[in-house]
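User: Show me a protein chain along with its predicted structure.
Assistant: Here is one chain, sequence first, then structure tokens.
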Amino acid sequence: MKSLFIGLLIALQTIVFADVFPKAGTTAAPFLKIGAGARAVALGGNYVALANDATALYWNPAGVAGLGKISISGTHTEWFAGISHDFFALAAPLGNSQALGLELTYLNSGEIEQTTLEEQNGNGIFYKATDLALGLTYARKLTDRFSVALKGKYIRQNIYNEEAAAFAVDFGTLYDTGFKGLRIGMNMANFGSGMKMAGSDLSVVQTDPLTGAQVETALKTESWPLPIVFRVGVAMDILGREEGFILNRDNRLTLAVDGNHPNDNKETLGAGLEYMWNDFLALRAGYKGNHDTENFSFGGGLNFTLAGWGIAIDYAYAAMGDLDEVQRFTVGIAF
């Protein structure tokens, strides 16, 4: 049932968006496009200029350059059809102007029953499809207001006995203008080699209909590019304690606006609002325009100190159109 649902989902997306954008569905490793961190997702993914915790490693790695403490973050997402997505990140400062980051992204399809040409309803054998990305980031503050970062990552996709692997780099910048809390961010992600499936199941022995001889053949696979995306965004404090259009000791209201240019779909433009009361309670909402599935999102979070450690617990709800909704939970620790 799960394999049928996934197959219909892929077919539907291909039919619907083929005329809208001819490159839809033409990249490998689509799991790289699943947003990390409940805070960012609740803001509609409009986070490239706001990223200032360990999840910045996904949205804009330059955001970790200014961290004053070690930051750890873990996010669990229940995707569709029993598919789970997990993101773990660790960012550690090196002095006052540098930082290192390590991240792991893992997607698991759950069990899928194998089908063959002879047994198209399933043969009782189950397998899993898994995706993995492991990234290492170096971030540095070139001035007290301008930061840059470079990330290298290893990407792997596996389905039964076949797998594909690639290497890629991300690059990010973050500039704090010093004017009313205005920040400008830029990120280019997933620039790297293509991915091509290989494995033992691609070798097939067939019978020659004329001679009856057994002939070894091989199924041919093609190399597909990674889903490169270029993000640019701005964030500004409307209300703020030290910066902002209106100074307020207990309340902060931040507006974030991002534009995204992917190589396999339409450009998107979105905005998000984050309200923070006393650095304790956060309420968030976001919108992503011109996107095929993701539109509205909202969420909230709690920040508090426990035994000297900073704890952040965040939740996000994202409406996904005909695909229903997706919920995320993130726990962050700073020490």
